[in-house]
Design brief:
Layout lengths: L1 E6 L2 E4 L4 E9 L4 E9 L6 E7 L4 E3 L7 E5 L5 E6 L8 E9 L2 E4 L3 E6 L1
Parallel strand pairs: 2-11
Antiparallel strand pairs: 1-3, 3-8, 4-5, 4-9, 5-6, 7-8, 9-10, 9-11
């Protein structure tokens, strides 16, 4: 059983940057997937960037070259650096992990990009 808490969201103008953080507490053993998702108003939740236990990283096509996912050495924090933000990046961003086959979610952090 783990707890995920996101932070770092906010209101920015197009072209600016934000860095999101997700702190994972509890038992972090057995985590084989760490990812960021987002959900825009009226849209389905979509995967933005994922980091597997094998070191593979997959990005949503629309964020490639602008977003970077990373994690702390202790693997209890995952980051999403977001550069050159666009209005279409607006949404609630969620941190998620898969541990022993079960997926957990944070509460989300709002990112709003104005034009």
């Amino acid at each position: 059983q783990v707890q995920l808490v996101e932070s770092g969201g906010g209101l920015v103008q197009a072209g600016e940057s934000l860095r999101l953080s997700c702190t994972i507490s509890g038992n972090i053993f057995g985590i084989n997937y760490m990812a960021w998702y987002r959900q825009a108003p009226g849209k389905q939740r979509e995967s933005v960037a994922g980091f597997t236990s094998g070191g593979s990283i997959v990005y949503l096509d629309s964020v490639k070259g602008r977003f970077t996912i990373s994690r702390s050495n202790s693997r209890n924090t995952v980051y999403l650096q977001m550069n050159s933000l666009k209005p279409e990046d607006t949404g609630v961003y969620y941190c998620s992990i898969i541990q022993s086959g079960l997926q957990s979610w944070g509460q989300g952090t709002q990112v709003t990009v104005s034009s």
